[in-house]
Amino acid sequence: MGSAGKHSGRCCPKSEIDVRPDSAADADDFWALANYDRFKGSRKANVEVHGGATLEEVVVPIIEITYLSSSIEVQLMPIDATATFTGTPEIIVSFRKKAAIKIFATQKLMDVSIEIDGHTYDAEPIDDHFYVVKEMPEIRRAKNYTVNVYACGNKIANSLPLVVKKESGSEKSIL
Predict the structure, then answer these.
(1) High-pLDDT (> 90) share of the chain, %
(2) Among 26, 58, 81, 122, who pairs with 77 as Cys (CB 3.0-4.6 Å)?
(3) What is the CB neighbour count within 10 angstroms for residue 11?
């Protein structure tokens, strides 16, 4: 297809003998090319050449808004605790026993995770209101921690207390 480069961008005037190129769109008296086939070899074009559509011109952003009830209550508990657990949860860790917790929420949540001591762990649902983090290998030191709980990446509970104790450092009654 012949073009003398009279127009900027990737467009060529139509003529009677021209056949529509594979990567061209019909734009009245011109072919709007979607590639650089107009230019032969490695010569520079005589005129400005548009580089094509930018990502912002082609992609449509979809923003998903999730409304969570502000009245969601979240409770941490030891993994073997019953549903009526109250107080500050205390979990025991040792060389063989990794830290693990159970989470109770008053609403059904999706994609639950926790953040503790700079580490993030995913929680698996065990029913509509209970979720479990089976293993937290980085939580090995006996101390008081704070836990943030997230659902779908949104923080739903902030600074929940958790006490971790070492199995070897706990008192045992021999009586």
Answers:
(1) 33
(2) 81
(3) 19
